[in-house]
Amino acid sequence: MEESSPRMTGGTREAPVNISPAVAAHAEGEEIEVLESTDVLPVAPEEVVSPQLIQQWKSLFDKMSNKRSNSFRRAILQGSRQLKGCSLRDEVGLGLPQRLVRHVAYETLPREVDRKWYFDSYTYCPPPWLILAITIAEVAVFMYYGIQLDRLVLQVSSPSFLKSPLPYHPQLRAQAWRYFSYVFMHTGIEHLSLNMAMQLLVGVPLEMVHGALRIGLVYVCGVLAGSLAVSVTDMTAPVVGSSGGVYALVSAHLANVVMNWSGMKCQFKLFRMAMALVCMSVEFGRAVWLRFYPPAFPPCPNPSFVAHLGGVAVGLTLGVVVLQNYEQRLQEQSLFWIFFCVYTLFVLCAVFWNIFAYSLLDVRIPPAP
Question: What is the Cβ-side half-sphere exposure of residue 163, based on CA atoms within 13 angstroms?
């Protein structure tokens, strides 16, 4: 669409040609596809843009609500704002903070227009505090119990390990905070190290792009799903570790990369995905081995591994929807509400299971620590 301008014909000035409203209706089938295929943003001209043209742009791109991200539409509507036409990788003279933001953009966002918008708008205010705060708290709790129990490796083998008010234990399942607080306890330094590495390497960049609220939603939903999944499927086992939340974030990110493989421009994609899957497999294998290893203090078994699977389920459903909709309102996404309703139904069923199933099935729960 171009702005009409007066033309000189035979010494006389013709009246400006008005753009027909049919152009906006026809644009959805033609011009939108051109914009989507090229990711080219119209740049505001130097002269003043007429109000009629601005209104026509608005009517055109109002129809794109389900085709492009809000960042793209906002860049169109803000005619005075100009995005550079070159790729972010071609920009030079960037400081260390800007290079970090550019790196995060290529790690997490599949479209160049979204990467440019994020690069221009991110200000480190607020910083990615949530994942860092959770990690610091986990390290602090681990060091506290490491000193108290006088061991760093396989703390779970200590008779006082499960006496903490933090781990989930089936005998104490009425204490609702334990369904969340178990993330701060780990079976040993090997458990903490793997979870902390994945949590920082994946969680911090995701929080920088999507914000603490969205990433916190995925993380907390993964944590709760992990403990509830254990209470339903491994009814006699306790739970410790942040694997539920970590696996929710990592699974959502990996799924997002696979679904947008051609658009993701991060380096060594295949190798890095393979390394992430190896780390997840090693941590999951360690948890399975520990669960079936003879417990140090029977009849209480070692912590369950099912929380990992609960986190993966959340990541592949709610997590993918959150990461797919950069800068779009989640409440406007029908798929988000579908998965959220399914998740809520699972939580309600698990709560009723915890209230009634243990007595109906006559489950022999190990005594409280």
Answer: 8
Q: Which of 181, 231, 243, 251 is catalytic?
A: 243
Q: At what angle do helices 96-108 and 112-121 cross, to 10 degrees?
A: 150
Tokens representing residue 106 in the block: 């290529």
pLDDT band at 368 (very low <50, low <70, confident <90, very high): confident
Give the DSSP H or E segment for 9. Answer: strand 8-9
- CA 131 to CA 183: how far, in whole Å? 13
DSSP for 40-65, please give it. Answer: PPPPPPSSPPPHHHHHHHHHHHGGGT
Does pLDDT of 151 surpass 50?
A: yes
Q: What are phi and psi of 168, to 5 degrees?
A: -80, 130
Question: In this structure, what token pair is assigned to residue 178?
Answer: 């334990």
**Cβ count within 10 A of residue 239:** 29
Rounded Cα distance, 367 and 369, in Å:
6
26 part of the active site: no
Alpha-carbon gap, residue 52 to 64, rounded angstroms: 19
Catalytic residue, from 169, 191, 253, 308: name it: 308
d(CA 69, CA 66) in angstroms, rounded, equals 8
**Please, are residues 249 and 209 in contact by the beta-carbon 8 Å criterion?**
no
Other beta carbons less than 10 A from residue 143's beta carbon: 13
Q: Is 210 a catalytic residue?
A: no
**How much is the average pLDDT of 299-303?**
85
